[in-house]
Amino acid sequence: MKRISPMFRALVKQKVAKYLFEDDVVMNWSVLKKCILILVLGCAVHLSWLAWDIFVLFSPEYWQFVNVDIVRSQLFLNSLFFFILLFLIYPCYKYQNNRKVESFLPYLAVGIFVFSLCRDAYIVGVVSPVAMIAYVCLVTVGLVLFHRKLVYSMLIPASIFLSICGYLCFIGQLPYSPLFNIQNKFFYNGFWLLSMFYFIVPILAVCMMLFEILLSQWRHREKLIQHLSQIDPLTSLFNRRSINQCLDKLNDAQKNDYAVVLLDLDYFKRINDFYGHHKGDETLIKVSDVLNQQLRESDIVGRFGGEEFILILKNSSLEKAQQVAERCRSAIQQLKILSDEGEIIHVTASFGIAISKPELRPQQLLSQADKALYYAKASGRNLVKCYTIALESNLHAKQVKAI
């Protein structure tokens, strides 16, 4: 027999984890698919009861602690409920997309399951640990999985039934826990305690497993939402919001100088107009890939909006930032993008650089980089310009001259 390789085992484990915790979120299931889950849980509970019934009937030494006739009736009823719940799985699976069936079948499936558990709760005692733990766990799981209308339509009658049974037991009209022979030394009965423990364990185990899956999926969803709120969906780069947060953190730390580089693709509108928006999107994706390849792992690259990108170069001087920008500019210029007709689409970008200073706030730094970018555009495009006092003077002079 061939051994399964560790790599294959790890791959299977990864696929199962992805299915359970990422792709197939239980809370997103249809109501009938959730019913199937509850029905399987019900079948498992009744199987555990059947195992206990059979064990007791074949163990005469424990008959002194139980009502044997009720154990025999329990064997029949647990078998009946097991097959009914098992049978209901089929219509829940077959009619998942049938709205008419979805309007009544969940009430039938969950109702029978709850009714069977209520009867078992009375048999072992309405205030026994089994009844209380099953009540709390199933209500909690139910409220997570189903609409409140369905849960409370089952919860209210079940609560009334258990309350009436408890009251009638209290006044002596009904025997409390008829399954067991309860005498004065009830809690000293080791068999009763072990039976309670046996009934509790499968319910707790299954409910805890469901809670763990639901909690893991909720945490994964929260991380995914947080990730999506920080990432540009087209280029998978940081978006403007994330970049602003990074700048605020760097400004608060202010341990080392960092450079901000703004770059804008030249004549990008022409690419969209002449070659189509799908080619414009392809250009943005390839430019983002180029920028990622040219930067260090500690640096940050983001899409600042439209065809504008931003680089945050940590622990960088103005000279080093200029070298990085020139390298990026050259790599973008060498990009080979073909139109649908096979024509080469030429892509270039203009860069503006500003270096951090203790007295500058992030928005002021961005403003300086934007002025340098504007100067690069005004000077002929496909250029790298650094913000300096002289550049500020030149810009002011050009603006005055334009007026």
TrEMBL record:
Enzyme nomenclature, EC number: 2.7.7.65
Keywords: Membrane, Transmembrane, Transmembrane helix
Regions that span the bilayer: 36-55, 75-93, 105-124, 130-147, 154-176, 196-215
Cofactor(s) needed for function: Mg(2+)
CDD domains: GGDEF
InterPro entries in UniProt: Diguanylate_Cyclase, GGDEF_dom, Nucleotide_cyclase, Rev_trsase/Diguanyl_cyclase
Domain GGDEF: 256-389
Reactions listed under catalytic activity: 2 GTP = 3',3'-c-di-GMP + 2 diphosphate
Gene3D superfamilies, sorted: 3.30.70.270
GO terms for MF: diguanylate cyclase activity
Pfam family, one: GGDEF
PANTHER family: DIGUANYLATE CYCLASE DGCM-RELATED, REGULATORY COMPONENTS OF SENSORY TRANSDUCTION SYSTEM
Protein name from the UniProt record: diguanylate cyclase
UniProt lineage: Bacteria, Pseudomonadati, Pseudomonadota, Gammaproteobacteria, Moraxellales
